[in-house]
Amino acid sequence: MPREFSRASRVSEVIQREVAVIIQKEMQDPRVADVTITYTKMSRDMSTARVHFIRPGDEQAIKDTLRVLKKAAGFIRHELAGRVDLRYIPNIRFFYDASVERGRHVTELIDQAMSRDPSRDESGE
After folding, report:
1. Range of 81's domain?
2. Among residues 41, 42, 105, 125, which is most buried (max CB within 10 A)?
3. H or E element that contains 59
4. Has residue 83 been placed in a domain?
5. What's the pTM?
6. What is the per-residue pLDDT across 81-113, written as a single tens digit (0 to 9) for each?
C-alpha cells in the first residue's frame, strides 16, 4: 500500500507548525508579531526548509520582517532542535509569499473587467 504523504511532506508540516509557534511565542520582536506561515517546503535531501510567510503592511515592513526572520533563523533552528524528533535539523530559509497579493490583484482585475462589460445587465448575468 503506497503512502499518501511522503516523509518530506510530513516533516514540512511539523516544521511549519513549530516555526509558527516559535515566532509567535518565543520571539519578542514586534516586527514578527503579525507573521503567518503559509507553507513550508523541504529540499530533496531534507537539509533545508523553505518557510514562506505573509504579513500585513507595506513593502518596507515586509522587508524588515524578512531581515529579522533571516537573522533569527539560527535561533529558530536551535529551538526546533528541542521540539522535533529529527536526527538532523534543517537549515531554515525564509521567503515572503506574494501569492495572496497576486490573487487579490487578479480578483480586482476580474472585478474591473466585469464592471466594464456592457453585455452584462443589472442582474449580473
Report:
1. 7-97
2. 42
3. helix 59-71
4. yes
5. 0.79
6. 999 999 999 999 999 998 877 777 788 888 888
